[in-house]
Amino acid sequence: MKQVISRFVMILGALLFIGILFSRDFRLELGLIVESVMFPFSSYPFHIVILIMSILTGIYSNLIQKYTINHRRLRELQEIMREYQKEYMEATKQNNQFKLKQLEEKKQEIQQLQSEMMSMQFKPMFYTFVVTIPIFAWLWEKASASYELVTGSTSYGNLTTKLPETFLKTLNPDLYIINSPFLGQIHVVTPVLVFPWWLFWYLLCSITFGQIIKKVLKVGV
Q1: Residue 164 DSSP SS3
Q2: Is residue 43 part of a domain?
Q3: Within a 10 A sphere around the Cβ of 7, how many other Cβ atoms?
Q4: Which whole number is the average pLDDT over 19-37?
Q5: CA atoms of 27 and 33, how far apart (whole Å)
Q6: How many angstroms separate the Cα of 95 from the Cα of each of 23, 173, 196?
Q7: Quick check: is 147 in a domain?
Q8: Backbone φ, ψ for residue 182 (5° rounding)
Q9: N or C end of the chain, less CB within 10 A?
Q10: Mean pLDDT score of the chain, rounded to an integer?
Q11: Distance between CA atoms of 201 and 195, rounded to whole angstroms?
């Protein structure tokens, strides 16, 4: 039963990833579903909402990593891989045919271990997709729709014509304007480097708090 649930969650995570990547309509519908749960956050400034979401997803993803990965086994596999690659490089450099033949005989075993290691690393990623992708779709929808309302731009596919009136009423324009160092007063969709500001802020918060939460929860120890 446990394996069935695990496989179902992984498939769901993969489907969410494919859906949000290739279908804007799917992204819109997913964002609206999340809105039915997250609507209380609509009264907060958007950068604060992103901060809260990044902390929540950081806690969730680190708990997933802590309890779905056998970190001792993962370290063992990584050490075996490093040692094998080191020996192979040395044998190649010295043209040691005897050693190369021995390593070649171990290749199938190493490939199986490599497959095990990749499975251990990918499984938690698909688990986290189940939560992080819906939240991302919701944040994207809020930011993009508010940008269209404020600027009149249709660069995001004229979202405001596809979203219900109840959703649009939650988009207080003032909550999506921020004062950014060096940039001054901008909308959260304004590009920073190659990302919209809100995405840049989300990544920054996620990485920062993710590392803090990882240390607090002692993930990988």
Answers
A1: coil
A2: no
A3: 12
A4: 91
A5: 10
A6: 52, 68, 52
A7: yes
A8: 75, -25
A9: N
A10: 89
A11: 9
